[in-house]
C-alpha cells in the first residue's frame, strides 16, 4: 500500500509543477488567435493603440500593415502598397500611425482611422526600427549603414545621429535624455545623449554577436539583450556598460520586452517565448518556454492590457495570425 501511494505522489509531482508554472505571476496563457487571411511572408514589428484596443502589424513579406481590433478579435483594415514595412509606431496625440519601410527607405504616416496618407520622407536605404520620443514629441528612425534620423511628427528632419553601423533595436531611457542602440555589425551598443545629440560611448560586445533585440528596465538601469550567436541573454548596466549577468536563451530572437512590475523578461524568437524572472543581483531564472508558431519571432508586450502579442507568419496550411497571450497576475 505504501509503495502504491509513493507511486501516486511521484506521478502527481510533474503535474503539480506544470500547473504551478502556468499559474506563476508573469507566466503566459494563450487566450485567442486572430487570423490574418491572405497575409504571406515574414512578419515584423507591432505597435498598439492602447485606448482604441488596436494593434498595427508590419507584414514585411506582404508589403502591408495589418490593423487588428483586439477587442473584437479580427482584422479590420490593411494599409497596402509598401515595400518591406519593418518599424511601426502609433502616436496617440495625433492619431497617426508611422511606418518605416526597408525596401525603399521611407518613413510614411497615415491617419489611423481613415488610413489616408499624411506625410512621407525618404531616408535613403533600409528604414528600420521606429520609436516615439514622448519627452521631445518626435520620432527616431534607424536607417542605412549607420544613422538614426530625428523627425518631427510631420516627418520633417530635425537631425541625424551618425553611428558606425546599421542600428537594430534601440530603447529610450525614462529620463528622456539617453538612448541605447544595438549595432550588431559593430559588435557593440551605442549610448547616445539626446539632449546634446551626441554618441557618448560604444560598449564592445565581446562574448556574443548578432545582438538584434533589446529591452530596457529603466527602474534598475538594465538592458536585456538576447544575442543569436551564441543564443544567450546578456544583462548590461546602463550606467557603466558592463555585463552583469547572462543566461542561455532561445535562438533567432528579434524582440524582447520587460515587465517591470513583475521583474519578468520575455524573449520572442525561434517559434517560442522565453520567460525569465530577474532576481536580486541580476540573476536570471527561467520560468517557462512557451511554444508559439513556426517562424514567429516578433511581438509586443502591452502592460495596460496585461497582454503579450506574437505575430505568427503563414506556414503551410496555417494562415498568418496574431497570438494573444494573457500575462498571469
Protein topology:
Elements: H1 2-23, E1 28-35, E2 46-49, E3 54-59, E4 64-69, E5 74-79, E6 85-91, E7 96-101, E8 106-111, E9 117-122, E10 130-133, E11 138-143, E12 147-151, E13 157-162, E14 170-172, E15 178-183, E16 188-193, E17 198-204, E18 209-211, E19 215-217, E20 222-229, E21 231-237, E22 243-248, E23 253-259, E24 264-269, E25 272-278, E26 284-291, E27 298-302, E28 307-312, E29 321-327
Antiparallel strand pairs: 1-29, 2-3, 3-4, 4-5, 6-7, 7-8, 8-9, 10-11, 11-12, 12-13, 14-15, 15-16, 16-17, 18-20, 19-20, 20-21, 21-22, 23-24, 24-25, 25-26, 27-28, 28-29
* Secondary structure category: mainly beta
Main CATH class of the largest domain: Mainly Beta
- Profile the largest sheet: 5 strands, antiparallel
Number of strands: 29
CATH architecture of the largest domain: 7 Propeller
> What is the CATH superfamily label of the largest domain?
YVTN repeat-like/Quinoprotein amine dehydrogenase
Please state the overall shape, judged from the principal axes of the Cα atoms.
globular
Radius of gyration: 20 Å
β-strand amount: over 45%
Overall tally of domains:
2
Helix content: under 10%
Averaging pLDDT over every residue, what do you get?
A: 92
Could you give the order of the helices and strands? HEEEEEEEEEEEEEEEEEEEEEEEEEEEEE
**Low-pLDDT regions:** 4-21
Amino acid at each position: 500500500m505504501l509503495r502504491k501511494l509513493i507511486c501516486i505522489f511521484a506521478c502527481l509531482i510533474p503535474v503539480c509543477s506544470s500547473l504551478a508554472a502556468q499559474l506563476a505571476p508573469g507566466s503566459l496563457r494563450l487566450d485567442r488567435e486572430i487570423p490574418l487571411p491572405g497575409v504571406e511572408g515574414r512578419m515584423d514589428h507591432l505597435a498598439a493603440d492602447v485606448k482604441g484596443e488596436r494593434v498595427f502589424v508590419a507584414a514585411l513579406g506582404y508589403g502591408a500593415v495589418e490593423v487588428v481590433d483586439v477587442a473584437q478579435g479580427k482584422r479590420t483594415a490593411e494599409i497596402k502598397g509598401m515595400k518591406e514595412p519593418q518599424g511601426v509606431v502609433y502616436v496617440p496625440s495625433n492619431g497617426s500611425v508611422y511606418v518605416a519601410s526597408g525596401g525603399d527607405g521611407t518613413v510614411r504616416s497615415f491617419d489611423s482611422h481613415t488610413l489616408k496618407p499624411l506625410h512621407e520622407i525618404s531616408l535613403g536605404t533600409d528604414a528600420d526600427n521606429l520609436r516615439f520620443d514622448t519627452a521631445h514629441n518626435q520620432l527616431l528612425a534607424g536607417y542605412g549603414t549607420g544613422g538614426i534620423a530625428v523627425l518631427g511628427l510631420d516627418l520633417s528632419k530635425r537631425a541625424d545621429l551618425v553611428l558606425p553601423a546599421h542600428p537594430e533595436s534601440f530603447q529610450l531611457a525614462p529620463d528622456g535624455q539617453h538612448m541605447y542602440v544595438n549595432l550588431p555589425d559593430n559588435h557593440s551598443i551605442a549610448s547616445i545623449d539626446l539632449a546634446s545629440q551626441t554618441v557618448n560611448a560604444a560598449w564592445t560586445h565581446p562574448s556574443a554577436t548578432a545582438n538584434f533585440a533589446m529591452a530596457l528596465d529603466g527602474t534598475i538601469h538594465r538592458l536585456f539583450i538576447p544575442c543569436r550567436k551564441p543564443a544567450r541573454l546578456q544583462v548590461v548596466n546602463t550606467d557603466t556598460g558592463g555585463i552583469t549577468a547572462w543566461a542561455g536563451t532561445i535562438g533567432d530572437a528579434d524582440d524582447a520586452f520587460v515587465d517591470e512590475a513583475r521583474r519578468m523578461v520575455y524573449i520572442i524568437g525561434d517559434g517560442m517565448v522565453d520567460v525569465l524572472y530577474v532576481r536580486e543581483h541580476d540573476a536570471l531564472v527561467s520560468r517557462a518556454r512557451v511554444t508559439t508558431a513556426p517562424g514567429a519571432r516578433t511581438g509586443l508586450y502591452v502592460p495596460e492590457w496585461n497582454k503579450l502579442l506574437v505575430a505568427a507568419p503563414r506556414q503551410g496550411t496555417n494562415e498568418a495570425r496574431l497570438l494573444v497571450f494573457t500575462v498571469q497576475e
